[in-house]
Amino acid sequence: MKQPYLLFLGSEKVIENAKTAAGIAYWRPEACKGQFRLEGGTIDLGLPDLDLDEAVAAGIKTLVIGIAPFGGKIEASWVSVILTALEKGLDVAAGLHDRLQDHPEISQIAKTHGRTLYDIRKSDKKFDVGTGEKRTGMRLLTVGTDCAVGKKYASLAIEKEMKSRGVNADYRATGQTGIFIAGTGISVDAVVADFISGAAETLSPANDADHWDIIEGQGSLYHPSYAGVTVGLMHGSQSDKLVLCHNASLTHMDGLPNFPIVDFGACMDGYLSIARLTNRNVEFAGFCINTSKLSERDALDYMQRVEETFGLPCCDPVRTGVAKIVDKLGF
Q1: What is the pLDDT of residue 292?
Q2: Angle formed by the axes of helices 196-203 and 227-237, to 10°?
Q3: Has residue 69 got a pLDDT over 90?
Q4: 3-state DSSP of the chain
Q5: pLDDT range class, residue 254, cuts 50, 70, 90
C-alpha cells in the first residue's frame, strides 16, 4: 500500500475497537501522518486531526480504516467518507470481514476514479489441511486469557528484542493489524475452519534450526466466540514456547459479561493440553500483561506477584519491555 496513511477512527470511543489504528500508529509511526475522526469520536492517537482535503494537501496516499468493530461490518456512517476519499484521489484499505470490494457503491467509485481498494483479510491463496508433522526451526506463539489483550504487541516486542540481540527471528502476522504492520501475513480468522492449522503451517514453514518464528496469537481458548480459530492456530503453529497475555483491568470476556476471566493456572493448563497435540515439549516462557490502566506502582506489584506465583518472567511490552522473557529463552 502507498504511504503515508490517514487513520480513520470513525466515532469510536473504545480504544480496543480501534486497535488496528492504534497498532499501526505505535509500531509504524513513520507511515502515519494524520487521523480522521467523526463527530463524537474520542479516540486520540496523538496524530494531527486532518479532514480529507487537508490529508490530500499533506501528501497522504491511503485512508486506512483503523476500526475493528464487533462483527467486522462496514458501518453506514463510514461510506460517505470512503467515497469522498476515493473521489479525492486516496486509496482505501481495511481489514474488516465486510470487504470494500464487495460494497457495490465503493467498488464502483474506486473503479471510476482509478483508485485501489485493499482488503487485508482477503487472500487468494489456497491452503491444505494441517498435517501436524514436525518441522525444523523454533516457534513461539502468544496466547491470551481473552481477545484484544496484547498478543500482537507482545509478539512484536519479543521479535524486536530478539533481533536486537542478533537472534534469527521473524514476526508472523495472523490478523489484519499485524499484516498492516509487517506488510505480510495471513488473517487466519478469514480462513475456512478446516484449513486454519494448514494456514498456520504455511505461515511458519520449516526453517533453519536456530530460527525463531514469533507467531501472533488470535482469539482465546476461553472465549466462546473465538476459541475455534485459537485451536487451529495452536495446532498449526506447533509452538515450542507459549507466552500468556492478559489485560490486568479485565474481569470478564470481551463482550460477554457472564464469562469471567479464567484463572491463570487453569488457563495455562488448558493451553498446554491443546498445544501438546502437535508438540509434546511445549512450555510457557512467561507472561505479557497490559497494565496501561494501572499506576506504575500497582503495575510493578502486579507483575511481581505473577512472577512469584508461577516462577516465570512477567512483563508489560510497553511499560517494561520483554527482555526478561527473551532472557528466559536463553538469549
Answers
A1: 95
A2: 40
A3: no
A4: CCCCEEEEEECCCCHHHHHHHHHHHHHCHHHEEEEEECCCCCCCCCCCECCHHHHHHCCCCEEEECCCCCCCCCCHHHHHHHHHHHHCCCEEEECCCCCHHHCHHHHHHHHHCCCCEEECCCCCCCCCCCCCCCCCCEEEEEEECCCCCCHHHHHHHHHHHHHHCCCCEEEECCCHHHHHHHCCCCCHHHCCHHHHHHHHHHHCCCCCCCCEEEECCCCCCCCCCCHHHHHHHHHHHCCCEEEEEEECCCCEECCEEEEECCCHHHHHHHHHHHHCCCCCCCEEEEEEEECCCCCHHHHHHHHHHHHHHHCCCEECCCCCCCHHHHHHCCC
A5: confident
CA-to-CA dists, residue 129 to 67, 141, 146, 194, 282, angstroms: 31, 20, 26, 6, 22
Query: Which overall architecture, per CATH, does domain 138-328 show?
Result: 3-Layer(aba) Sandwich (3.40)
| Grid cell for residue 284 | 510457557
71-96 per-position pLDDT tens digit? 678 999 999 999 999 999 999 999 98
Count of CB atoms situated within 10 Å of the CB of 61? 17
CATH topology identical between 5-119 and 138-328: yes
When pLDDT is averaged across residues 272-276 and rounded to a whole number, the result is 98
Task: Return the number of other C-beta atoms located less than 10 Å from residue 187's C-beta.
Answer: 23
Please say whether the structural domain 5-119 has been given the CATH code 3.40.50.720.
yes
Q: What's the number of CA atoms in the CB half-sphere (13 Å) around residue 36? A: 22
Q: What is the pTM of this model?
A: 0.90
Q: Domain locations in the chain?
A: 5-119, 138-328
